[in-house]
Amino acid sequence: MKVMIRRDAAGVLSAYVPKKDLEEPIVSQEKPDLWGGTVTLANGWQLSLPEMAEGTTLPITVDARKLSED
Questions:
Q1: How crowded is residue 4: how many other Cβ atoms within 10 Å of its Cβ?
Q2: Is the four-CA dihedral 7, 13, 16, 22 of positive or negative sign?
Q3: Do residues 3 and 66 make contact, with C-beta atoms less than 8 angstroms apart?
Q4: What are the φ/ψ torsions at residue 18 (nearest 5 degrees)?
Q5: Quick check: 69 pLDDT over 70?
Q6: Contact indicator for 50, 64 with CB cutoff of 8 Å
Q7: H helices then E strands: how many in the chain?
Q8: Which DSSP letter does residue 7 get?
Q9: Residues 35 and 52 sit within 8 Å (Cβ to Cβ)
Q10: Residue 19 clears pLDDT 60, i.e. is over it
């Protein structure tokens, strides 16, 4: 699914899923650089993010895979 990842002025990462019209903060991430690992959204969704080059700028739209809602 297409997901837009962005960082707000306060430095909080969030994910926006256009098909669901859903925007949720990212509450945890598997890897410190974000890419190539899983992230957990505030609503409980876990998304697997693709590998990206170091220094990838935000906002960016990526193809993420939804792993679970728990």
A1: 16
A2: negative
A3: no
A4: -60, -40
A5: no
A6: yes
A7: 0, 7
A8: E
A9: yes
A10: yes
Q: How distant, in Å, are the alpha carbons of 10, 23, 35, 57, 59 from that of 54?
A: 22, 24, 8, 9, 14
CB 21 within 8 Å of CB 15: no
Q: Are 45 and 19 in contact (CB under 8 A)?
A: no
Length of the chain as a residue count? 70
Strand order in the sheet with 65-68: 60-63, 2-7, 13-17, 22-29, 38-41, 46-48, 65-68
Average pLDDT over residues 3-32: 95
Question: What pLDDT is stored for residue 17 in this prediction?
Answer: 96
19 phi and psi angles, rounded to 5 deg: -60, -30
Four-residue CA torsion sign, 60, 7, 14, 38? positive
How many angstroms from the chain centroid is the CA of residue 53? 15
